[in-house]
């Protein structure tokens, strides 16, 4: 890499910058099409989005995105694609909340137990796709999509007929409340000490810290362990991996199950930190947005953190657009255009790098 | 080819025979009713169109997970434009919007070489978001009653086969022989009559057009020079290029046709299957179409069978949950058949396991009177998974399917 004195760092920046520019143009056009000023829109979003209340909500939105994106990145790194994160996190959160409310344990251990339950359920659900892929040759893309729909039906059936708490009369179907020992403490008291004032409806999920730790573990396991190396090898070049002794079928199964286990955790920030139960209002769509987060962040621990925060920021700050009579759904256009332009930009830059490299090599060969 | 269609007919007759037995045994009369057959057809058409769309794309070597998004674009355009300018223009708009989604996919995958699945998923996310954004704007401007539902579209006329299944021809009202037969409740004969009546009577003209797409696809892909070139781009692009085929152009054509068909499928959902666009109307049918394509082993006839199977499961699920309950008995029968086959082949352990599973299903069938509604809605997805699990191993996809192609072999 000695030959690229100026380009190495610049090239790494080129793709995200180009993607950002393209997506700003597209979003501006979308706003202009409704005869509104995009400049006003961005100004309003920035002003509202940078208040401390909005920043806290941004963190709360980004936390599940980040956990789910890590789950997807595990399969991407292994050359697979787990689209079923939505179903895995839904079932994981529901079983975690339902079973977790049935017992009382010492504080930290209770939370860990709920996490283990959620991971087991998510992992088992994804393992179905792993089994079908390894034993029956069914594409994991198709099977995880079908499992998403099945998880949706199964969870609404179980919640309505088996898991609902019938001791309290309420219109909202919900599992029993998890006892205090199983509730993840909020970060607000900590922030108060740092000088941040309470915000209406505010609070920051304690699972944010967990997500950070998970990111570090993900980075370490993928980049610094033998398991991570074999995972990446079977994704990058399956034939070479098999020749060098990696059991690719086992790797496929393990990657999918592990991904499902991590995905099982992605529904917990809200369940353990806010609602303390699984109910009808459980947020949908986390698993799909997380696909975009993982793609935008290049399956890289830091990159995904940045893109999760970006997605959170766009979602929260766009609520202010209602004030100036622009559809808040504009954020969907922003997220979508960032996603598509970034995958294209990364691919173009990768090509360009290869061309540069081969030119360099040609020069060396001539000399 | 002839013996193949004969065999398919035999299987169809056998299926109706078994279903009539189950109907008699369980009293689930909707299993083979006219209504179920026509609903199954109605629900099969969008899946078959999506599957055919996938066929053109994947035969040219581009994996198209984006079918779902293209169907969403089509359904939305069908409702939006159809409610303003009439159903036929709505359908035309659906085809155009599906193709616009496909154009995005083509630019990303063919011109820029982005991973096909990544681009397809991106298109699905973008399509869902885009239509929600524009729908909200329409709602706010007062043109729509809600942000998730378009105004109604006028319906397109229907017709049947003269004499056999009713309909009107130049003012002459045809008799409806099959309906009369179906009313008699004769074992097997009435069942067969009802199924044929359901499949041929009161057909929307769009359904007829969609069904005509299947032989048309066979003709285009296997009997024309264009089809040969398109398939060669999916099997051996480098060899094709060396023989003067413009591989990029073939792939663009495949993906654009794919989007048009998927868009038509979406438009069908909004205009024919319902009478307006509604959010989540597509509900994974693009993916199920893809599953039908895989099940059908990348052939139009197979896609039709796959789509019929999923459409049937979907129709029963929508119409009558008692029939789904009766279907468990069908599963028991199939399992028993497998037990006998395995036992004859000397696979005693496998036969015993299957037998255990069959008894378990039979017990569940006897123990439960009716399946809960939330579980019944899962039928099409479970069917897809089971069918894929059984069928996936004998598939042969186009050799260069999903591999980004660069002219001159540059990565």
Q: Overall 3D geometry of chain A?
A: globular
* CATH C-level class of the largest domain in chain A: Mainly Alpha
End-to-end Cα distance of chain B: 41 Å
Q: Low-confidence runs of chain A (pLDDT<50, min 5 residues)? A: 1-6
The Rg value of chain B, from CA coordinates, equals 23 Å
What is the β-strand count of chain A? 0
Strand content of chain B: under 5%
Biggest sheet layout of chain A: none
Helix content, binned percent of chain B: over 70%
* Cα-to-Cα separation, first versus last residue of chain A: 18 Å
Architecture per CATH nomenclature, i.e. the level-2 architecture of the largest domain in chain A: Orthogonal Bundle
Secondary structure tally, helices of chain A:
15
Low-confidence blocks of residues of chain B: none
Task: Please write the CATH class name of one domain in chain B.
Answer: Mainly Alpha
General description of the model:
The complex is a heterodimer of chains A (367) and B (411). Chain A is built from 15 helices and no strands. Chain A is mainly alpha-helical and 367 residues long. Chain A is globular. With 411 residues, chain B is mostly helical. In chain B, strands 1-4 form a two-stranded antiparallel ribbon. A two-stranded antiparallel ribbon of chain B has the order 2-3. In chain B, strand 2 and strand 3 form a beta hairpin. The longest helix of chain B has 27 residues. Chain B is globular and about 60 Å long. The chains are: A mainly alpha (367), B mainly alpha (411). At the A-B interface, helix 6, helix 13 and helix 15 of A face helix 5, helix 12 and helix 17 of B.
């Amino acid at each position: 890499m000695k030959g690229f004195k100026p380009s190495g760092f610049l090239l790494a920046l080129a793709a995200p910058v180009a993607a950002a520019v393209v997506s700003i143009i597209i979003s501006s056009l979308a706003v202009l099409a409704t005869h509104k000023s995009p400049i006003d829109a961005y100004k309003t979003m920035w002003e509202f989005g940078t208040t401390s209340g909005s920043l806290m909500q941004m963190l709360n939105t980004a936390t599940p995105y980040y956990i789910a994106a890590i789950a997807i990145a595990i399969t991407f790194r292994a050359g697979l694609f787990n689209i079923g994160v939505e179903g895995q996190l839904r079932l994981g959160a529901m079983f975690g909340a339902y079973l977790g409310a049935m017992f009382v344990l010492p504080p930290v251990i209770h939370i860990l137990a709920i996490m283990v339950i959620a991971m087991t359920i998510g992992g088992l659900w994804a393992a179905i796709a792993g089994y079908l892929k390894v034993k029956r040759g069914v594409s994991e893309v198709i099977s995880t999509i079908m499992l998403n729909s099945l998880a949706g039906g199964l969870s609404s059936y179980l919640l309505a007929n088996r898991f609902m708490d019938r001791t309290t009369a309420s219109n909202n179907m919900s599992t029993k409340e998890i006892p205090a020992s199983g509730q993840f403490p909020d970060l607000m008291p900590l922030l108060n000490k740092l000088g941040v004032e309470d915000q209406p409806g505010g609070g920051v999920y304690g699972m944010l810290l967990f997500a950070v730790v998970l990111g570090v573990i993900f980075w370490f396991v993928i980049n610094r362990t033998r398991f991570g190396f074999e995972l990446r090898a079977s994704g990058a070049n399956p034939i070479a991996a098999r020749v060098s002794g990696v059991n690719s079928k086992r790797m496929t199964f393990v990657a999918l199950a592990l991904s499902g286990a991590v995905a099982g955790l992605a529904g917990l920030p809200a369940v353990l930190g806010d609602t303390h139960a699984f109910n009808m209002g459980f947020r949908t769509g986390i698993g799909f947005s997380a696909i975009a987060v993982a793609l935008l962040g290049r399956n890289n621990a830091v990159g995904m953190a940045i893109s999760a925060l970006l997605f959170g920021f766009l979602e929260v700050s766009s609520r202010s657009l209602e004030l100036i009579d622009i559809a808040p759904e504009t954020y969907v256009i922003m997220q979508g255009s960032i996603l598509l332009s970034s995958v294209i930009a990364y691919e173009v830059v990768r090509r360009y790098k290869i061309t540069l490299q081969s030119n360099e090599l040609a020069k060396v060969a001539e000399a | 080819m002839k013996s193949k269609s004969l065999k398919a007919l035999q299987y169809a007759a056998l299926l109706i025979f078994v279903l009539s037995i189950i109907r008699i045994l369980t009293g689930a009369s909707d299993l083979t009713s006219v209504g179920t057959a026509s609903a199954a057809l109605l629900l099969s058409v969008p899946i078959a169109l999506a599957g055919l769309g996938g066929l053109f794309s994947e035969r040219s070597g581009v994996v198209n997970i984006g079918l779902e998004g293209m169907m969403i674009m089509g359904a939305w355009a069908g409702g939006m434009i159809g409610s303003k300018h009439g159903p036929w223009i709505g359908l035309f708009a659906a085809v155009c919007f599906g193709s616009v989604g496909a154009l995005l996919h083509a630019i990303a995958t063919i011109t820029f070489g982005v991973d096909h699945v990544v681009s397809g998923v991106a298109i699905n996310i973008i399509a869902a978001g885009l239509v929600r954004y524009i729908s909200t704007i329409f709602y706010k401007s007062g043109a729509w009653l809600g942000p998730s539902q378009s105004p109604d579209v006028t319906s397109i006329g229907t017709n049947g086969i003269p004499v056999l299944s009713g309909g009107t021809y130049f003012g002459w009202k045809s008799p409806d022989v099959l309906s009369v037969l179906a009313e008699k409740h004769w074992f097997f004969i009435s069942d067969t009559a009802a199924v044929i009546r359901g499949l041929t009577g009161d057909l929307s003209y769009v359904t007829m057009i969609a069904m005509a797409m299947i032989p048309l696809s066979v003709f285009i892909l296997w009997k024309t020079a264009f089809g040969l070139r398109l398939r060669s781009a999916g099997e051996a692009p480098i060899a094709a290029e060396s023989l003067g085929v413009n591989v990029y152009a073939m792939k663009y054509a495949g993906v654009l046709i794919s989007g048009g068909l998927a868009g038509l499928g979406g438009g069908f959902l909004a205009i024919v299957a319902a009478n307006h666009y509604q959010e989540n109307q597509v509900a994974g049918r693009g993916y199920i179409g893809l599953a039908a394509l895989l099940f059908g082993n990348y052939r139009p006839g197979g896609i039709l069978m796959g789509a019929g199977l999923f459409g049937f499961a979907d129709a029963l699920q929508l119409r009558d949950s008692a029939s789904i309950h009766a279907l468990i008995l069908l599963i028991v029968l199939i399992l028993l058949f497998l037990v006998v086959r395995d036992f004859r082949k000397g696979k005693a352990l496998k036969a015993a396991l299957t037998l255990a599973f069959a008894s378990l299903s039979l017990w569940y069938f006897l123990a439960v009177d009716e399946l809960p509604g939330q579980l019944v809605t899962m039928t099409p997805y479970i069917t897809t998974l089971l069918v894929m699990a059984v069928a996936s191993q004998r598939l042969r996809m186009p050799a260069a399917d999903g591999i980004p192609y660069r002219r001159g072999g540059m990565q």
